[in-house]
Amino acid sequence: MTPLEGALWLVAHGFPVFPCDHPGTDRCSGVGRGHNPATCEERGKHPAVPFTRAYTSDPQQVRQTFARPRNVGVAIGATLGPDDTQLLVVDSDEPGAIEAAAAKLGHQHEPTMRVTTAKGHHDYYWAPRSMKLGNGLGSLRGKFDGDIRAGNAYVIGPGSVHRSGAVYELEEPEAPPVYAPQWLLDALRAPAVPPRPRRPYMGPPTGKTSPLVRLVSYVAEATTNRNNRLYWAACRAFEHARTSGEPDAGIAQALLDAGRHTGLSEAECRSTIRSAYQRTAR
Predict the structure, then answer these.
(1) Does 204 reside within a domain?
(2) Total structural domains in the chain?
(3) Nearest Cα to Cα of residue 277 among 244, 242, 228, 245
(4) Would you say residue 196 lies in a domain?
(5) How far is CA 243 from the centre of its chain?
(6) Triad 187, 191, 195: Cα angle to 5°
(7) Which of 10, 28, 152, 201 could be a cystine partner for 40, CB 3.0 to 4.6 Å?
């Protein structure tokens, strides 16, 4: 599916769309306050128009807009569902993240319209319009590896191209969004669980090489996506160790301290660091 085909599919099924930056162009076409297209490194995700008002459901306009390389954005707040419902998209940062969150709460995930992404997937649901939803995780914070998109928000739609080259794809084109399960709505209504106290952080150990210092600081400064940051930094640190001779144990301990400083448990940190070590060893 190309971006044009994805956009046409979306408007045919009631989802207004708008153009976003495409990583295949020489320069980011994204707009917005504080965004510098010339130095953009998050290619493929920035809206190319003010998306809260410059969306369309007109197939002819879609063909004109996506005749040149553009990714597809889905205007969530402009989407009207059946029975006066609103669109809610659960953005999982890894495969099975929402299934795991449901299991932690004693429920089973119900399949719905799903778009696979470069890292995980987007699950589309209908939710009561009376619910004031945004991007908050509610009591899912700490139990779910991902984000919630609702209200004046957007997601990248099927047919779009990630900067890695991966294409966003519909798992089952004939599967429409289902009504959001009650356990998910209850979790989003509930107040966020207070974060675990941050462990005092004394900084990276002295004598370490500059790349390790930067990577450890990158982990320690995390307030969101903490586990993802830890995994990425650990992969880079162990890769550096292969050429610099830095002891693996010292790297692991520095990353462990930084991860615990963000509120991750020691078990979570050890598991993530071990996975990164095994991947880089391969």
Answers:
(1) no
(2) 2
(3) 242
(4) no
(5) 32
(6) 105
(7) 28
Query: Are residues 160 and 230 both part of a single domain?
Result: no
- The whole-model pTM stands at 0.69
d(CA 222, CA 259): 9
Same domain, 185 and 261: no
CB of 185 closer than 8 Å to CB of 127: yes
Tens of pLDDT, residues 159-204: 999 999 999 999 999 999 999 999 999 999 887 555 454 554 445 5
CA dist., res. 76 & res. 14, Å (int): 11
Structure tokens at 2: 């190309």
Shared-domain flag, residues 66 and 173: yes
Final residue before a domain boundary, out of 156, 189, 222: 189
Q: What is the per-residue pLDDT across 110-158, written as a single tens digit (0 to 9) for each?
A: 999 999 999 999 999 999 999 988 888 888 988 899 999 999 999 999 9
Q: Which residue has the tokens 């589309």?
A: 124
Which residues form the domain of 172? 3-189
Domain boundary among 158, 189, 220: 189
Residue 200 inside a domain? The answer is no
Task: Give a yes or no: residue 203 inside a domain.
Answer: no
* φ/ψ (deg, to 5) at 246: -65, 135
User: Can you say whether residue 159 is alpha, beta or left, with left for phi > 0 and alpha for psi between -120 and 50 degrees?
Assistant: left
Q: Residue 159's CB: how many other CB atoms inside 10 A?
A: 23
Give the CATH number of the domain where residue 111 resides: 3.30.2250
